[in-house]
């Protein structure tokens, strides 16, 4: 309990520091910058992060164009791997629990995309059965490691190639979930320790705040997520 | 002959008992065990979330040390795998730990996102309702064995304190 309190304090401190850095950059009203920091549990990006323009393979073995196939939806992207014992399943489970707490119409505007950082072991079939333990509507993507790595790098997630280190198989995962709006702009970063209640609160606010699409979100147009 | 044998046996037994007691007193009074006692340690709240992968699972628990001396957890073994290790999450990867120190009058929680036991290649599919035996080894103190129930995917224990 003390530890988690310390962790929370650290998180808050990080948030404050991030806020300070932001205010220094823009040299404008820090009050406005503190607003969003309080509004969301996650970190609001004043400078949106472009969604990776990448085509990978989904769990049915078909090509999945991340931008085209999630257009018009609030898309939560996480980089992880199925042999990850702790962070990855915890993050997926927390997201799944959050989505269960949303209403049907809210839920229908959101896609969750899991991109493996361990494509050698995470075949489409392995990813599919792993995701089914959480929510079978989650999109799971595999592909060429170099492609995945550059997609991760483009959103600030540094991956080391999976390697055996002293007999242990080491794979990196992202430490965050990135929320992209319907026009491929990353607007909010959730740290991997975010609780499902905090996801629910932030997702509701995001749905009211970000652009999902020019037309009715999720309906028709450019193929909704499979 | 037989009468003598009958009277001798209780004497031998009594002798052994006395020797054992004397040895025990000597062992304790020489400070061999020091102020550390395995009974100062409590392992509570152990559980294993039902794993989503057939190849890896995690175990969590809390160790509380009510003694005056730090206790060093040197490893955790399970009855479902030959391979289990203590991990700490560090940023985007995991670090294997050879020991975890539970401070005197302190607590160490193995909980999602921080410390966990990684159980590799469980011998059976762990489903909710199953149980895993965890054997925690503490340097100089010995072992504590606890039973960890397999909980639903993504299970979080209720927060003991807000």
Please describe what this structure looks like:
- The complex is a heterodimer of chains A (226) and B (162).
- By secondary structure, chain A is of the alpha+beta class.
- Chain A contains 8 helices and 10 strands.
- Chain A has a 6-stranded mixed beta sheet, with helices on both faces. Chain A has a two-stranded antiparallel sheet with strand order 2-3.
- In chain A, a hairpin with a 2-residue loop joins strand 7 and strand 8 (168-170).
- In chain A, helix 1 packs antiparallel against helix 2 (30-39) and helix 4 packs across helix 8.
- Chain B has 162 residues and is α+β, with helices and mostly antiparallel strands.
- Chain B has 2 domains: 1-33; 38-151, Immunoglobulin-like (Sandwich).
- Chain B is 17% helix and 44% strand.
- In chain B, strands 1, 2, 3, 4, 5, 6, 7, 8, 9 and 10 form a 10-stranded mixed beta sheet that branches.
- In chain B, strand 4 (83-90) and strand 5 (93-97) form a beta hairpin.
- Residues 29-33 of chain B have low confidence and may be disordered.
- The A-B interface holds A 1-4, 7, 82-87, 89-90, 92-94, 96-97, 130-131, 133-134, 157-160, 166, 168, 170-175, 192-193 and B 49-53, 55-58, 85, 87, 89, 91-94, 96, 107, 109, 111-114, 116, 118-119, 153-154, 159-161.
